[in-house]
Amino acid sequence: MTASKSYPRSTVTMVPTCLKRAMVLLVAFGMMAHCQRMEEDLVAEETDILEAQALDSPAVAAYWTTVGGTYIIRMSVGRCGVWVVNIYYSVFYRSNTYDSPKSLGDAWLGVPNDKLLKIRQVSVGYSTVWAINQYYGVYYREGITASKPRGDKWVKLSDNTKIKWITVTQKGHVWGLSSSQKVMYREGASNTNIAGTEWKTVSGVLLDTITAGKSGVWGLNYGLTRKVWYREGTYGDPETNTVGSKWTDVQGVFNYICAGDDKVYGANYTSEIFYRNGMTAASPVGSNWGQTETGVNGLYHVAYVKDVLWAIDYSYTVRAKVF
């Protein structure tokens, strides 16, 4: 009979423990590398799109005011001022634009980022600013006031619903698009209850872009056609039945669309800017699209508030036109 070998207890337990730690480290490094690749891919995607569009873009007319900015790719305007996002996912606020809709501001001020978030898009409301990070997490800016227009910190919604695009009205009503292009509405969200309670799906269309304001909820469908849709019952941003009733197909094909206080603006694939004529409470979809008398091409992203049309040109620079 052969005697069995015995080992010190510490030797027997040390090997599995070391292996577990090594596996945890490998998984962690793998996740970090994967996240870094995702972030780099997103930056490359934005860069490729904008540089491709810039190749043939006509010059922007000189009589637009150049507001400036470095590598700006997203912009939103509202009572909380003019906010932009650059290609490096940094957020900036335009000084002296809080509650001053006709002001073009003085300088771009970085928004403190306590969570080191990478922000893809912002939407400016009456009392806060909503944001989407690079992984489609949803945040809002807490503590925005006249004396502190950049606010205090970003607050993440408690649920983990992934939202790829977000828009907020000046009454605090929030709409978004899921990662599968479904239209989402934030139940209970308002200026007095910023976060609301939960996301609800609004069926009927799949959209690639959505915008909401006093002129209603508008969107561009997912795919190559980029047709325009309007949500019936949302004109005026009503307090009751805020979600509306049905989607209406509106003539027009645009690359980008923006619902302002009293107008809806769209930019087409050749960078011409149009606005919707004849919009009233009785006829919320209006009558036809009229081209802006700006004499301008080379603009791909527009935002409108109180007789000021903001835009980003193909050199990643912000411009503004006061009517």
TrEMBL record:
Q: Which UniProt keywords apply?
A: Lectin
Entry's transmembrane regions: none
Q: Name one GO molecular function term.
A: carbohydrate binding
Q: Which domain of life is it from?
A: Eukaryota
Q: Which PANTHER family match?
A: DYSFERLIN-RELATED, FISH-EGG LECTIN-LIKE ISOFORM X1-RELATED
Say which family it is in: Belongs to the tectonin family.
Tell me what this protein is called. Uncharacterized protein
